[in-house]
Amino acid sequence: MKLRAWAVPMLASLLLLTGCDQLVPGTASVVNGAKITDAEVQDVADAQCVAADRAAKGGGGTATALSRIHQQSLYLLIDAEITKQYAEEEGLEASKDLADAFFSQFESSLAELPEKPRTVLEDLFKDWAKSRAVLVEAGSKATGQAPSQQNIEQLLNAGLQQRAKWMKSADIDTDPRYAPGKDGLPGGGDISVSEPSSDFAKNAGAQKADPEWVAALPANQKCG
């Protein structure tokens, strides 16, 4: 099954805001009662920065504001949690073969990383791959079509539409430091809409930043 290769997204950035007094300290977001901690976000952000720095040294990356890396990291964690809850409620199970196929697009890049960031990103992208396989299953159930190489993105989009309906009642409470939109998603993102999503950058809510603006940031506020 042919899937697009992963590339570190080019991202826009917003400066981190002050803390939130509505969430327990150390909490980045609460998704229908399930807590995602700042520590989890930091681990993913640190690992993504290692990958971005390595890509930049190889001439294949673009500098990214650290604040946006944190938003993107939380976005991915929320996306996986949302799909996990959706699958449990709807009785959906991911195809192992399809999840493995989605994950395979990351393996060669991850294999080159040091052990700690590699482990963090492997766990993250295995969850991401499983969530994509769940959404394909949801799309298959909705359309009556069996998955094939020709219709994976079509079924994925159909699955996203089904999840969007379920998400209308979702309760996502996110710390203001991650610049959430009205739906609670960091960076003003939206994972409830239907978009071609086999491309990792689209799932990460990538937004293109002004390269000159990013380049002017202090070294400790960007990576890559």
Quick gist of this model?
The chain is mainly alpha-helical. It has seven helices and five strands.
Number of strands: 5
The overall pLDDT average reads: 78
The largest beta-sheet arranges its strands as 2-1-4
Q: What's the order of the H and E elements?
A: EEHEHHHHEHHE
Report how far apart the termini are: 30 Å
Query: Which topology does CATH recognise?
Result: Triger factor/SurA peptide-binding fold
How many helices? The count is 7
The coarse overall form would be globular
Give an overview in words.
The protein has a single domain, classed as Triger factor/SurA peptide-binding fold, CATH 1.10.4030. Helices cover 51% and strands 7% of the residues. The chain contains seven helices and five strands. The strands form two sheets. The protein has a three-stranded antiparallel beta sheet with strand order 2-1-4. A two-stranded antiparallel sheet has the order 3-5. The radius of gyration is 17 Å and the shape is globular. The chain starts with 26 loop residues before the first strand and ends with a strand. Mean pLDDT is 78; it is low at 1-21, 193-208 and 212-219.
Task: Summarize the topology.
Layout: E1 27-31, E2 34-37, H1 38-57, E3 64-65, H2 66-90, H3 96-111, H4 115-143, H5 152-167, E4 172-174, H6 200-203, H7 211-215, E5 222-223
Descriptors:
mainly alpha; disordered N terminus; globular; Triger factor/SurA peptide-binding fold; 224 residues; two-stranded antiparallel ribbon; 5 strands; 7 helices; 3-stranded antiparallel sheet
